[in-house]
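Customer escalation, tier 2.

The customer says the design service returned an amino acid string that "doesn't look like it belongs to this structure." They asked us to rerun it and document both sides in this ticket. The original structure tokens are below, unchanged.
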């Protein structure tokens, strides 16, 4: 048997090890700026302490420093940038409308959740309740609703794209909704880069007991 030395990083304040109870008292604040995808302070590391996180997907619980004070944050693996989340909701609307069209034009049977591809983005959408035809509500009624909703959704994305370009937060050439999809992919790459940077700071260990040591 070969002996090896293993080092771990322990979260301490002064000479005292931080406990779970003390960690939970830290002010919670997002460490990633949601407009520019920049870190708001120095990241100390992350802790393997998950409470009420069931169904949250992969994420990190981060300890970071802002103006000399410790903060904690949950950083999701999935991109949470403001514009990305807004546009993703727009694309979900379009994906749902596409599900309407497949139901009407192709007679496709829709499951409770469908994986729809919109502008190279694969999006999970829920089956719309209006696909359950009610008395007096025909496919032609749904078709008219689709035309109206599809136009509104595309206009909303177009307006969001124009506002983004005019804001001059970043440069991106004018284009159509496929450009918006490219921008979403760019956001995902930026967020993933920051996530990997934070994960690379390493795990911090905190005391299990509620007493300072």
């Amino acid at each position: 048997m070969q002996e090896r030395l293993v080092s771990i990083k322990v979260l301490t304040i002064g000479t005292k090890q931080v406990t779970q109870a003390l960690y939970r008292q830290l002010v919670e604040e997002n460490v990633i700026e949601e407009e520019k995808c920049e870190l708001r302070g120095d990241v100390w590391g992350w802790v393997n302490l998950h409470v009420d996180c069931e169904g949250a997907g992969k994420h990190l619980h981060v300890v970071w420093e802002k103006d000399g004070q410790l903060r904690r944050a949950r950083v999701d693996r999935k991109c949470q940038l403001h514009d990305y989340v807004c546009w993703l909701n727009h694309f979900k609307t379009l994906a749902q409308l596409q599900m309407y069209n497949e139901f009407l034009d192709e007679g496709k049977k829709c499951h409770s959740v469908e994986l729809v591809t919109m502008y190279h983005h694969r999006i999970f959408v829920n089956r719309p309740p209006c696909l359950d035809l009610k008395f007096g509500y025909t496919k032609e009624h749904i078709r008219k609703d689709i035309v109206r909703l599809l136009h509104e959704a595309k206009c909303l994305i177009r307006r969001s794209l124009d506002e983004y370009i005019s804001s001059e937060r970043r440069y991106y050439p004018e284009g159509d909704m496929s450009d918006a999809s490219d921008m979403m992919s760019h956001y995902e790459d930026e967020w993933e880069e920051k996530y990997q940077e934070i994960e690379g700071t390493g795990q911090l260990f905190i005391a299990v007991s509620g007493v300072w040591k």
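Tier 2 assessment: The sequence is consistent with the input. Helices lie at 20-25, 82-105, 139-167, 177-199. The chain has two domains: 9-79+194-205, 82-192. Sent an explanation to the customer and offered a walkthrough call.
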